[in-house]
Amino acid sequence: MVAEGKCLARHDNMVIFVAGVAPGDVVDLRITRKKKSFLEAEPVHFHELSELRVQPFCEHFGTCGGCKWQHIGYDTQLYFKQKQVKDNLERIGKVPLPEFDPILGSEKTRYYRNKLEYTFSNTSWLTKEQIQSGQEFDRDALGFHIPGRFDKILDIKHCYLQPDPSNAIRLEVRKYAKEHNLPFFDIVKQVGYMRNLIIRTANTGELMVIVQVYEDRPEEMQALMEHLAVTFPEITSLQYVVNAKGNETFHDLEVICYKGLPYIHEEMEGIKFRVGPKSFYQTNADQAYELYKRTRELANLTGNELVYDLYTGAGTIANFVAKQAREVIGIEYVPSAIEDAKINSQINNITNTTFYAGDMKDILSDELIARHGRPEVVITDPPRAGMHEDVVQKLLQVHPNRIVYVSCNPATQARDIEWLSEKYDVTRVQPVDMFPQTHHVENIVLLTAK
Ligand SMILES: C[S@@+](CC[C@H](N)C(=O)[O-])C[C@H]1O[C@@H](n2cnc3c(N)ncnc32)[C@H](O)[C@@H]1O
């Protein structure tokens, strides 16, 4: 099992990456892509199935891009996730490593997400058998993109990722749109009405639903909103967006709140986090709590430290650790996330945080450090691309006592750690599983100044 959840095979000294198999399967492969140094292939015939396999529980497994590791038992998934972290730190990081803390598995391995986003399409995905049968099928779909296909949507019957009433809401919106002849969007021709449905189920019980449509049809929207409000009185934030752009992103559009409040709250240790329609919040809230607790523990705060929380998003980690620190500085690219971060401090009476919006390599400047002082502790949680080299250089120059590096991409984390190893030792490694049934793994590394 190697990167991106693919398996590795060899033939004539050539490396072949294969998706949709398990280590130990004996299969015939068809080569789908040839590169100079490797090949990619798909299985065409299974001779023997691996002992690591289990029966996938979802009818959409194999077609849907969502939970590609359902055919492997959860303990085995955890084993491979931990191994992925180790391989990256050894091969890319090339630094001396302590013994790893065992990966923190997720208690919930199904229904663990608090946010799902479904797309409407008038060109649903059909299987080869369906096409060959010559029968007519309903081509309207509400579900997920087929991996690698921007124009094909898999109509989802039941999704195991988000708790109730997520499935019921999706099915009801689909049924209503069909019954009322609201056309599902055609992404190629850019015509239709129903575009996208977002459901957010917070751990406080609050529930947000956002319907995205292509054009302004006030009467139809009013009727749809009213229907949802009556059918699901538990919705605490019912919203819609009119989006006539070529794509589904709506960060630059007005989101209209039809019923309830324009936001919901997540909660951790009594700290409330306000989550608006455009806000980012970790999608596995229970595991986010475990991740943050471990991050705080490794930061080893006594209440006297100045902490910089880099890539702070909506200030979640910054606010979570604020009580145990003297002062926390949070930095993040997205201005609306920084607005959320400030609100999250206010509503929790946290007064020792300061937030800045902008590109990390510009904001983390000598001037900022002169203003706030040299941090004893830096917590950094960059996007998948890792930290910009200038940011790493700045950290080496500022030289905090401890850096707690949280990452969703062990490869870029390992690269950055190699750079940081000039002045830091890796003293703890704690992988965390935020996304059961997928190959994704989160990892926390504690770096201690040499
Ligand atoms: C993995 S998220 C971390 C979120 C946050 N720590 C949390 O747990 O909710 C990475 C964050 O980095 C921000 N980001 C990406 N590139 C950035 C940059 N160049 N400068 C500052 N922030 C950036 C993203 O907007 C995103 O909020």
From TrEMBL:
<dbReference type="InterPro" id="IPR010280">
    <property type="entry name" value="U5_MeTrfase_fam"/>
</dbReference>
<dbReference type="InterPro" id="IPR029063">
    <property type="entry name" value="SAM-dependent_MTases_sf"/>
</dbReference>
<dbReference type="InterPro" id="IPR030391">
    <property type="entry name" value="MeTrfase_TrmA_CS"/>
</dbReference>
<feature type="domain" description="TRAM">
    <location>
        <begin position="1"/>
        <end position="45"/>
    </location>
</feature>
<dbReference type="Pfam" id="PF01938">
    <property type="entry name" value="TRAM"/>
</dbReference>
<protein>
    <submittedName>
        <fullName>23S rRNA (Uracil(1939)-C(5))-methyltransferase RlmD</fullName>
        <ecNumber>2.1.1.190</ecNumber>
    </submittedName>
</protein>
<dbReference type="Pfam" id="PF05958">
    <property type="entry name" value="tRNA_U5-meth_tr"/>
</dbReference>
<dbReference type="InterPro" id="IPR002792">
    <property type="entry name" value="TRAM_dom"/>
</dbReference>
<feature type="binding site">
    <location>
        <position position="282"/>
    </location>
    <ligand>
        <name>S-adenosyl-L-methionine</name>
    </ligand>
</feature>
<dbReference type="GO" id="GO:0070475">
    <property type="term" value="P:rRNA base methylation"/>
</dbReference>
<feature type="active site" description="Nucleophile">
    <location>
        <position position="408"/>
    </location>
</feature>
<feature type="binding site">
    <location>
        <position position="381"/>
    </location>
    <ligand>
        <name>S-adenosyl-L-methionine</name>
    </ligand>
</feature>
<feature type="binding site">
    <location>
        <position position="311"/>
    </location>
    <ligand>
        <name>S-adenosyl-L-methionine</name>
    </ligand>
</feature>
<dbReference type="InterPro" id="IPR012340">
    <property type="entry name" value="NA-bd_OB-fold"/>
</dbReference>
<dbReference type="GO" id="GO:0070041">
    <property type="term" value="F:rRNA (uridine-C5-)-methyltransferase activity"/>
</dbReference>
<feature type="active site">
    <location>
        <position position="408"/>
    </location>
</feature>
<feature type="binding site">
    <location>
        <position position="332"/>
    </location>
    <ligand>
        <name>S-adenosyl-L-methionine</name>
    </ligand>
</feature>
<dbReference type="InterPro" id="IPR030390">
    <property type="entry name" value="MeTrfase_TrmA_AS"/>
</dbReference>
<keyword id="KW-0808">Transferase</keyword>
<comment type="similarity">
    <text>Belongs to the class I-like SAM-binding methyltransferase superfamily. RNA M5U methyltransferase family.</text>
</comment>
<keyword id="KW-0489">Methyltransferase</keyword>
<keyword id="KW-0949">S-adenosyl-L-methionine</keyword>
